[in-house]
Amino acid sequence: MRLTSFSRPLARRFSEASGTGPLRKTPLHGLHQELGADMTGFGGWDMPLYYKSQGILKEHAHCRAQAGLFDVSHMIPLQILGKDRVKFIERVTVADVQALAPGTGQLSSLPNEKGGLMDDLIVTNMGDHLYMVINAGHEPKDLPHMRNHLSGLDASINVLEGRGLLALQGPKAALVLESLSIHNLKNFQFMTAAKFKVGGVDCLVTRSGYTGEDGFEILCEGKDAVGLAQKIMAHPDVKPIGLGARDSLRLEAGLCLYGNDLDDSKTPIEGGLAWTISKNRREKGGFVGADVILGQLKNPKSVKTKRCGFTNTGPPARSHDKIFNLEGKEVGEITSGVFGPTAKMPVSMGYVASEHAAKGTKLEVLVRGKKYPLTVTPMPFVPHNFFRG
Fold first, then answer.
1. 22 phi and psi angles, rounded to 5 deg
2. CB-based burial of residue 16 (10 Å sphere; 0-12 exposed, 13-18 middle, 19+ buried)?
3. Angle at the Cα of 257 (from 347 to 295), degrees rounded to 5?
4. CB 350 within 8 A of CB 361
5. pLDDT tens across 146-200, in order?
6. How many CA atoms lie within 13 Å of 262's alpha carbon, on the beta-carbon side?
7. Contacts with 18 (C-beta within 8 Å, 6 or more apart), sequence order
């Protein structure tokens, strides 16, 4: 199967994001090749864009209807250890870690001294340690920054190298996991975590994901990853899914891709993540970049640009396409865009001047040299199906 017009921009974007040097391989790399994956560079890793027996559109639809298995072993899992681990993570992220009961997690961000987003991540309280997963290729940036703030604290960072990390996503995900485990999932809600065996393999399982569907992220030893993936895919409701469908699924769900929709120059407030900063953290501050971030919360007029969702007529808007007001003035830029297979329309997100960010605002987007009507539209474009009990 050749790259379609749908997948070609994705392949180019992912390859551009792969950096220089030889591509790293996840524990599932050989399995992807056996399954006929079309591989591409992403974040310094050689990853499946799609599987030739299916293609991006079929993979997208299968995940929305049944269950898809994603290799996310390019993400970097961390353990935060020591008696001051909570104080440390509350120093370097906006997370309200003290409020996390054991076995629960929350979306957060890693800001720099100017309030910009170095990374977005989930912090989970595992009782005797904190568990975090940072984005692919972010070790050279995130880890030195975090270690610079360890001074005076009894805390350390343990990088869980060589692990397998699988994401099982879709409305049938719980049914599939129940067939491979005796763990009771009825009270295992969205953003909770536990250690239990899956297919006879010791795993750390979080009920989370990046598609908007119910699902799980499953961490195991690298040596167990292929066997576990094969056991999961033996279920008739499961098919492997690549980066292409992962991108269209997450965009329909209104979820950000770091490097496109978030970066070091955007604060959590500009990036639409103010909701991740609890009242307690707003009142006490004490985290890197707090002066800038809390200043924006206190003075909304200081926020010059905002991340918004958009729908448009014509072809899908793509990353870097320019946005104009109806008077012809450039007021923003698309950061991610695709034709939403489930939404059945072009969907995108990007940044516009704050005065143009209100729901329903009519704008225009320049796609391939021609302007098309663009409307500020609330996200998600497809309703979330996270399991909340």
1. -65, 145
2. exposed
3. 100
4. no
5. 999 999 999 999 999 999 999 999 999 999 999 999 999 999 999 999 999 999 9
6. 24
7. 40, 41, 42, 43, 44, 45, 137
- Mention every residue, 6+ apart, whose C-beta is less than 8 A from residue 328: none
Buried-exposed string 87-116: b where 16+ CB fall within 10 A, e elsewhere: bbbbbbbbbbbeebeebbbbbbbbbbeebb
Question: What contacts 66, CB < 8 A, 6 or more positions away?
Answer: 170, 171, 172, 237, 238, 239
- For the segment 33-71, what is each residue's pLDDT rounded down to a tens digit? 999 999 999 999 999 999 999 999 999 999 999 999 999
Rg (CA), the chain: 20
- Per-residue tokens: 55: 């293609």
Q: Over the stretch 129-138, which tens digit does the pLDDT of each residue have?
A: 999 999 999 9
* Residue in 310, 277, 276, 275 with CA at minimum distance from that of residue 380: 310
CA–CA distance, 360 with 343 (Å, rounded to integer): 17
In 3-state terms, what secondary structure has residue 356? helix
The Cα 93–Cα 277 span in angstroms is 10
d(CA 240, CA 63): 9
Per DSSP (E only), the strands in the chain are: 37-42, 45-51, 67-71, 76-81, 104-111, 117-125, 130-134, 156-159, 164-169, 193-198, 201-206, 215-220, 238-240, 305-312, 322-324, 330-340, 345-353, 362-367, 370-376
What's this model's pTM, rounded to 2 decimal places?
A: 0.94
Q: Which are the contacts of 289, defined by CB distance < 8 A and separation ≥ 6?
A: 111, 112, 113, 114, 115, 116, 267
Place of tokens 């904190």: 130
- Residue count of the chain, please give it: 389
Tokens at residue 166, please? 């699988």
